[in-house]
Write a structure and sequence with these properties.
single chain; Four Helix Bundle (Hemerythrin (Met), subunit A)
Length: about 150
Amino acid sequence: MYSNANNAYLETRVLSADPIELVRLLYHAATGAVRDARRRREEGDIAARSRSISRACAVLTELLSALDRERGGEIAQRLAALYDYMHRKLIEANLRQADAPLAEVLGLLTTLSEAWEGVQPEPQPAAPAEKPWVQPFPAEPVPAYASHSWSL
């Protein structure tokens, strides 16, 4: 039951997230997968370690495919090279059953994740209303009431 609730929460979070939040979620997923791979390696659970490394590789592939190389320029090129490097390190860790490459990738992912935490989404301009009656009323001064009283 916990898993279903957690999956529903994550799905809602992903569907309502802006692009920057999606990148943050991907980094969170990648670091979690690498941490899990390290733990599974310590436990000697080879199959689970391999699955966690595969998850981390899949997230890196997603991050790589999300790069806008035209608008991103040099930063996108460097991130692509870094994602490729981390992917190769994960494969090395899986083949050699070594912790050092996993630790290195975790350090890189953590640094990148911290950097993305400081990025703020660009504010979106409010869409102009198509109909004039949807526009808000201009602020008008409240009329002052006459100081004399009416009698009937």
